[in-house]
Amino acid sequence: MDAVKTVNLVKIYQDKGKTEALKGVNLLVRKGELFTLLGPNGAGKTTFLRIISTQLLPTSGEAYVLGFNVLDEYEDVRRHIAVVPQDVATYGNFTPWEYCYYFSLLRGMSKLKAKENSEKALKAVELWNLKDRACATLSGGEKKRAIIALALASDADVLMLDEPTSGLDAVTRRKVWAVLREMVEEGKTILLTTHIMEEAEMVSDRLAVIDRGRLIAQGTVEEIKGLTREKFRVIAEGDLKALEKLVSSSFSVSFGNRRIIYVDDGDEAVELVKKALKCGLKAEASPITLEDIFVRLIRGEYDDWKND
Asked: CATH number of the domain at 4-225, please?
């Protein structure tokens, strides 16, 4: 059984322009994997998450969570999911412990189980020493971690996290990544949305790229990277005029006095670095990144860059 499945999912907001937030999205999330929905702001990620978490009605199409239809069997869906919305705020007088413990009780958990899960969740996000502090006295990042701990303590089969690490510092963000990967290894399914390329690349088993309501690519990180012929990039800095004769046949982008040149293989990248250095430029080579692919896809340049 799949964890999440959508068939031709459409959502049209009936505003003045009748905004099409989702345009026939077909997506499959397997049980026991961390699946990332990657896209720019306004791509439709949050709309998708709200529909499959039974918070928003679709205009047309079908959506299922663990085989339950989100329209006809929404109560069954809700029993199996936990959701962390993008802009959720904490109640100032609640403590992290109260969030985890009492919300677990509301889900029908026994007191003993709720205590065990709450302790484990708060320690996982490193809030145990602050468990009895009112959320009003916590920092923004600590409040966000309290909400994440609430979802972790729920023991839900499917966690739906909408940009869970936005606003967190790099150290805390990586700690959250570690917790999410541990949960997947324990058999949980996690669907998260993000526009942070590093996050998608580091935590995902599989991912999908969505833009303006359309699903434009999906697969593992390596499969997404494999969409392109070029596998390496060279970053050069200095007098870019000296590079013109070296990169005339290569795709490249410039940022002031820096240029990224994309090439087919490692040998070509090394050779280009040598030539750039001889021209008095600073240069270094590295494998292509998920962000490189993402930008090309979102700009609609994929057709000019894909494998023959």
From this structure: 3.40.50.300
